Amino acid sequence: MIRRRPLLTLGAATVALPAGLLAGRAVHAAALVGQPAPDFSLTDTTGKTVRLSQFKGKPVVLEWNNPGCPFVRKHYQGNLQSLQKTYTAKGVAWLAINSTRDDSADYLPPPQLARWMTDQGASPTATLMDEDGTVGATYGARVTPHMYLIDALGVLVYAGGIDSIPSARAADIEKATNYVRQGLDELLAGKPVSKSTSLPYGCSIKYRNGTA
């Protein structure tokens, strides 16, 4: 088991948190909220090439995923599966992206990752492999789950945490404000997203270059 540094960084302040909890650190990335989302092409767990731009005309969710992370497992206790099922049925494209480097203890090869997703009852539009971390770095994804919303015009309109309570306790899900649900409901109603950023929380992504 890899020990994850228990630090949450808020501006210049550092606050101790339970082991395994990390918040996203500021990075220089090509993806900026309010700007067109950078296009990318990745293969899914079946080897099929999936391109972000093929979903233009519909909202898109990007979900950074790592089954080895307790925060991911928390949200796969019924929460993420429900969101995926609800919103893909409404025409939203949901892309789960795994940027874990292939020599990490948390890495799952595509067939195993696909099996894990199936076992969870997950139903994203695609589960994508980003072992070299290029797409994760472009979007500044730092943790799992790190969430992004893209509107039907291809503009990045949200980046941050899945909800408002940064914990690994499943009991907190019902008490939290789910920013992904809130943002998608606003997009589907033709409204602007009222909260465009929040502090992401979860486990650090194990990038190949070791920067996370």
Kindly list the characteristics that best describe this protein.
single chain, 212 residues, Glutaredoxin, 3-stranded antiparallel sheet, 12 strands, disordered N terminus, Thioredoxin-like_sf, AhpC/TSA, Thioredoxin_domain, Thioredoxin family protein
Describe this structure in words.
The protein has 212 residues and is an alpha+beta fold. The chain has a single domain (21-204), classed as Glutaredoxin. Helices cover 20% and strands 22% of the residues. The chain is built from 5 helices and 12 strands. It has helices at 70-75, 79-88, 110-120, 134-139, 179-188, and strands spanning 7-10, 13-16, 22-23, 41-44, 49-51, 60-64, 93-98, 126-129, 143-144, 147-150, 156-160, 201-204. The strands form 3 sheets. A 7-stranded mixed β-sheet has the order 5-4-8-7-6-10-11, covered by helices on one side. A 3-stranded antiparallel β-sheet has the order 3-12-9. A two-stranded antiparallel sheet has the order 1-2. A hairpin with a 2-residue loop joins β1 and β2. It is globular, with a radius of gyration of 16 Å. 41% of the residues are buried. The model is unreliable at 1-29 (pLDDT under 50).
